[in-house]
């Protein structure tokens, strides 16, 4: 209120707001969210302006944001060069990785084309290359071989009475299984993205992902051995299939097909040498030399003119149809059999893609939307599945090439898709004589980066033993139990390590650093000083049902340790733990054997008596435990008068922890020790209120910081001294 006053000028009157008045005004302002009718809130949430509608549409279709601003002069040539380089990589990798998926090579080319176009419209990352990837190809291959093994497509040749595999029928059904699994995985990703579940990738820690990809590389190597050595091992599925396959391949080594081994050995040697030269001179080369494509072209030409398939019985790719396949509805009857595998594909593919996307976004200064990436990847898989593609994600090698060759936007992905399209339409039949051993060599050499991840063992041994354990458990479980069950087991184990670490946190007594407002652990910081008469206790983790009892035990131990170290009068009296019938109580000892005593009436305890547990039944034991408290265990002279609980690390609190805190207040109150809480976050205060914590405990025991609580106690002590004086 503004009022005039004598002598000119004005004076402003305003209401002085106390805490209760502020809370009342806050509740009035929040009426639209907390006290408004449901119909009003629903109407308000559905209200949409033109600007908000535009933001939502652009959020769902990021291409509408960046394409109108696209500059051909600035971005056109870099995207074209980058797209051609990545497209050249798509060709050999698409055909080679289709072998990992146990599919004909042409379907690897389809997988390199359709999903890249879909991601162009919905993706928010400018530098990742969507298409085939080693790990996902292996995971699809394990599903395909489980549901469509060779044993289901055997036929007896009437002319020579030999058993043969109906390859055409087998491959057709395998494509249907792979497409159905891909569509289901894509739908899972879209649903997770729409419900804002993009954070799911955070549950896959870096040690878990690297251990998982390293074990997937082991699966890939074993899967390619039959093409490298030219042998035909028995196909196994289920747990330990990798071990059985490896043993079978070793037993077939005496019958190795030498021409096939020669081709694979030469191809591997050439690829390794050429890639090393590429890495050494990468700064001098405008674009990387397409070594893989060169090896494939040369291998195809040699095979065609020397008739390797007819003269030396070397297995080749075979017929590659030209043109694109029409869309087909996936075989939904297999959904129930592949739902677990589809979920694993969805999570692993998203985790790999979002990690690469965020890495490039951080480097180039733009933002990647996690939920939109999940939707974009899901649509790429779902739409691609209708065109007989298998699961895709971002490829590390192709994404690095796209970024290092100057790619600026998603337009580079369109350019690479055009290269694949031209190959499928016109050049596909030219690769019919390509030896499969060459494709196996391409896969083998491209796994070099994953082989280097085994150095993580030494790094994690020096930095974090628990992360090392996660890495090893992930690797072993994935190798032994296959990719789907291994992923579930590794995630479960990783979550258990988190629970274990929160259940066993570090408990410490804090001291004051002179001249500051800092309170640090007295065991690790020698400069801090103990606050006279006050024990400051802190846990490094939040308090919840799994560690609430341990929190109480640690507090008592720390308090008693502090009390014994600071008071000579307690040398003859010891407060120790006594465990009986799996229940822990405090026992006040004065030199009498506790095994010969029983729990009697609390009022009958005299000086020199001992309180222990000797009840014969569990019910009596429970009642006696409820009667045992700090006050009933005896009185002594305390050097401390207050305990400050620093719970700043806690971000939530449950009912068990609330009950534990109430017990702490009551038990220490019986021996005239006041309890205060410091560093309590707002959500924790709200949970304390909802749990009825403040029904008999005043909010005046809460403080923002430890220093505030300590200053309050100091001022209270000065008031008492002034009163006595």
From TrEMBL:
It is found in: Membrane. CDD domains: STAS_SulP_like_sulfate_transporter. It is a multi-pass membrane protein. One of its GO terms (cellular component) is membrane. Keywords: Membrane, Transmembrane, Transmembrane helix. Signal peptide: none annotated. Residues 524-713 form the STAS domain. The chain crosses the membrane at residues 99-122, 177-199, 242-273, 285-305, 342-362, 409-427, 471-500. It holds the Pfam family Sulfate_transp. InterPro entries: S04_transporter_CS, SLC26A/SulP_dom, SLC26A/SulP_fam, STAS_dom, STAS_dom_sf. One of its GO terms (molecular function) is secondary active sulfate transmembrane transporter activity. This is Solute carrier family 26 member 6. The lineage of its organism: Eukaryota, Metazoa, Chordata, Craniata, Vertebrata.
């Amino acid at each position: 209120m503004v009022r005039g006053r004598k002598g000119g000028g004005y004076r402003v009157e305003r209401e002085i707001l106390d805490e209760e008045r502020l809370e009342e005004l806050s509740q009035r302002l929040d009426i639209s969210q907390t006290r408004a009718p449901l119909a009003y809130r629903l109407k308000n949430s559905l209200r949409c302006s033109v600007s908000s509608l535009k933001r939502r549409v652009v959020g769902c279709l990021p291409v509408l944001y960046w394409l109108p601003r696209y500059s051909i002069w600035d971005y056109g040539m870099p995207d074209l060069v980058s797209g051609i380089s990545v497209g050249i990589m798509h060709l050999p990798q698409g055909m080679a990785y289709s072998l990992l998926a146990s599919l004909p090579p042409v379907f690897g080319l389809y997988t390199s084309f359709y999903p890249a176009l879909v991601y162009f419209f919905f993706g928010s990352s400018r530098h990742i290359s969507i298409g085939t990837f080693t790990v996902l190809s292996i995971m699809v291959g394990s599903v395909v071989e489980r549901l469509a093994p060779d044993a289901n497509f055997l036929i007896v040749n009437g002319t020579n009475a030999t058993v043969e595999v109906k390859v055409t029928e087998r491959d057709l059904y395998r494509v249907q299984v792979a497409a159905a699994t891909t569509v289901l995985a894509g739908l899972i990703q879209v649903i997770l993205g729409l419900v804002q579940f993009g954070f799911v990738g955070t549950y896959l820690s870096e040690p878990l992902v690297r251990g998982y990809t390293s074990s997937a590389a082991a699966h890939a190597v074993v899967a390619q051995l039959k093409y490298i050595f030219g042998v035909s091992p028995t196909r196994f599925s289920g747990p330990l299939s990798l071990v059985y396959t490896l043993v079978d391949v070793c037993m077939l080594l005496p019958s190795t097909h030498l021409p096939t081994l020669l081709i694979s050995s030469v191809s591997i040697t050439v690829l390794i040498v050429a890639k090393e030269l590429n890495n050494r001179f990468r700064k001098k080369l405008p674009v990387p030399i397409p070594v893989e494509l060169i090896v494939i072209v040369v291998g195809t030409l040699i095979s065609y003119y020397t008739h390797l398939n007819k003269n030396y019985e070397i297995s080749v790719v075979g017929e590659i149809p030209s043109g694109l396949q029409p869309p087909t509805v996936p075989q939904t009857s297999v959904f129930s059999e592949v739902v677990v595998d589809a979920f694993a594909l969805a999570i692993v593919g998203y985790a790999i893609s979002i990690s690469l996307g965020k890495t490039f976004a951080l480097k180039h200064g733009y933002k990647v939307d996690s939920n939109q990436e999940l939707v974009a990847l899901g649509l790429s898989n779902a739409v691609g599945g209708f065109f007989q593609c298998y699961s895709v994600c971002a490829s590390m090698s192709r994404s690095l090439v796209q970024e290092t060759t100057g790619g600026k936007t998603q337009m580079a992905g369109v350019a690479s898709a055009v290269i694949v399209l031209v190959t499928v339409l016109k050049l596909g039949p030219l690769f019919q004589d390509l030896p499969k051993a060459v494709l196996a060599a391409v896969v083998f050499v491209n796994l070099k980066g994953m082989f280097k991840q085994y150095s993580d063992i030494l790094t994690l041994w020096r930095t974090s033993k628990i992360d090392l354990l996660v890495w090893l458990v992930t690797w072993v479980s994935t190798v032994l139990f296959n990719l789907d069950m291994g992923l579930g087991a590794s995630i479960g184990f990783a979550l258990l390590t988190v629970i274990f670490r929160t259940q066993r946190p570090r408990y410490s007594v804090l001291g004051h650093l002179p001249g500051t407002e800092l309170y640090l652990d007295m065991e690790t910081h020698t400069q801090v000083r103990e606050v006279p008469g006050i024990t400051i206790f802190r846990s490094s983790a939040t308090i919840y049902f799994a560690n609430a009892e341990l929190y109480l035990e640690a507090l008592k131990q720390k308090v008693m340790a502090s009390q014994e170290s600071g008071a000579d009068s307690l040398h003859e009296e010891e407060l120790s733990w006594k465990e009986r019938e799996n229940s822990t109580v405090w026992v006040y000892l004065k030199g009498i054997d506790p095994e010969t005593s029983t729990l009697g009436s609390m009022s009958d305890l005299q000086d020199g008596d001992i309180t222990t547990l000797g009840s014969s039944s569990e019910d009596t034991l429970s009642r006696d435990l409820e009667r045992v408290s700090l006050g009933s265990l005896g009185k002594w002279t305390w050097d401390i008068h207050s305990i400050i609980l620093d719970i700043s690390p806690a971000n939530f609190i449950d009912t068990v922890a609330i009950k534990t805190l109430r017990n702490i207040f009551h038990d220490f109150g019986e021996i005239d020790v006041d309890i205060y809480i410091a560093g309590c976050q707002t959500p924790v205060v709200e949970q304390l209120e909802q749990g009825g914590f403040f029904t008999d405990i005043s909010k005046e025991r809460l403080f923002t910081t430890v220093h505030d609580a300590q200053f309050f106690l100091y001022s209270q002590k000065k008031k008492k001294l002034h009163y006595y004086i």
